[in-house]
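Students often ask why we bother encoding 3D structure as a string. The short answer is that it lets us treat folding as translation between two languages. Here is a chain of 661 residues written in the first language.
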Amino acid sequence: MTVFLAFSCAIVPEQLVYPGDDVAQFDLRQPVVGEDNHMFVLPGTFCDCGYSCPAIFTWKNNENNRKSQVPELQQPAAPETSSPPPRRNGAATQHLSHYYSSKNLLQNTIYPFWLTPLTRWDSARFLQLALEPQRRLPPPPPPPHNRNNHLEKRKNDENDQQLEEKLQDVSSLFVESEMAHAFFPLFPYGIQMVAMGLLQLLPKWFLPCTCEGVLVLAAWILNTVCSCLAMYSLFRLTEWQILQRQEQQEGGADPRMCAQQWATQVALLFVLNPANVFFVAAYSESLFAALVFTGTWLIIKSTSTGKRTRRSNNDCPIATGSSRENKTLYCYEDIINFMSGILLWTLACYTRSNGILNAGYLLLFGAGRMLQPNLSIWTRLCRACFYALTVAVLFVPLLLHNQSTIQSHCVFPTSSTQGSTVGQPEWCSHGYWFYLYPYIQQKYWNVGFLRYFEWKQLPNFVLATPVLSLAVAGACTWIRTSWKRHENAQAQHSTRRIYWARRFLVWVVEALKASACDAKSTPQGEPFKTKKTYGEDDNDKNANDITTMAWKGAGRDETQDSAFLLAPNTLPLYAILAMSALLTFTTAHVQIATRLLCSSCPALYWCMASLVTTSTTTTRTCATNCSNKNNNIMYGEIILWYCALYIVLGIAIHPNWLPWT
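And here it is in the second language, the structure alphabet:
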């Protein structure tokens, strides 16, 4: 993918696709021919002063002054025989020469050709924050007495209107630091850590000849590793989900083999997802997907209560439940998996703002745990407090990121000290607990509810239509399946007519209860004992299986492909998919829907996999048990062509400064 991006960037002349001065760009500072004293690192950047840069660096309003005139870090002269200047504390480049007098083919040609297309659009902002973390800090405010002098002069100044515009232009000083707030810090931190490892471990002739180039290389390595981890986690999540609901059938294929085939298909769809270009460039999608998918896998693994994960009291020292006979057993391994998943989701919230949607999973699962029958009030209260605490943990990164920006920009007067807001951003007047992120998004990118509904944005809505359609189809399919499952279960217990509104409320409650317990059993842990329906025999081993009843009632067989991926415990995942699609369509820039959903929603790939036909080389038995025999081949081909088309368009458009998803 990276090679194709490089060729696409090299074919199109740069003069034809120049984005303009108002678009953030990241210069690799490649040396020109004959230049002998090219600096590896600019003073005041990450490679020069490490993590202490924000503490010792003072901003200059002029971009050129920031590079050439840095307080306490003056750019040294470059005599031919001078020794390298000493590095600041935390520097990762003490073993490197400050200047490169000779460069090899790798540094001269390959790295510039390879790394340049990875720095487009938002990649430039992430890389700038990794190179100069002090960009998040505001410039020094103008002295108050200067403003007073201007106000005194204004009384006798004929051009008082122009002067007033200058005085009110204080907010323009904070444009860069405010825009930096919209880019969460974990991904730039990750780039810095990988870059420090490269500078310490690899020889200088093997690295790019500038600090900027090393950071881009570090971003590519980080995204490659995270993409592999996300693919592996999605594979294991799909395999686990199917194995928990698939029983060994007589004369059937091995369930593990069928689950692995389905998981492989889902993993391949992730590799070939339509937003693939953003998983290669210096975007945070790869890191975010790795954190979300791995956390989801660990949490679902820890909260499964099926036969394959149920342990005896002798094996598990920790048990919770409504009675001594029917307890949901949680071993130390499950607790570790659950807490690890919460930690990964917390880090995801420190990577992208939409990571907070994972709190919906905990809310729905916690509600289902609270609604389980035969529980005391004390038990319900304890469960409510526990899941409320886990949800609060996910909000910690958002609050920390918000408060760090407010503290660096605002000085609030206290009762003992009378202060002034002159020289501060206007939002400082809203107080210490003002949530800044939506304000910044609306101010600079016009993000808000229905603010993107304009005729000129119609092409962007068309661009996002395929992935939004898949999300809606997946959510509607789960709702229809859950409703059929509920209707068939209710038909076995009661023949009394119930009004539609009450039926809807009962369905919601039962769906929440079923999402927190095993799909093969009731909330009490015992199989459903129902009357014979659908013509089953008494000897039919699946006659009393609620999942089988539901799928037969819905006109489908339990052994079809998506039966296991639409189980009751997947309610939170499809709810996150629906909420992400709704927020993207109504509030965010709709064109980001493709990369946002592809990096945050495992259920999207399950929906895509259910539409893609399985391989014709699959054995007949396994095809019967694992594939949808009635799957429409046309839908599968449309999905594959959709992925291929968006990958090709992304390769051609994104590296050439043209707007893409």
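Translate back mentally: Strands lie at 38-39, 99-100, 319-321, 327-329. Keep this in mind for the problem set.
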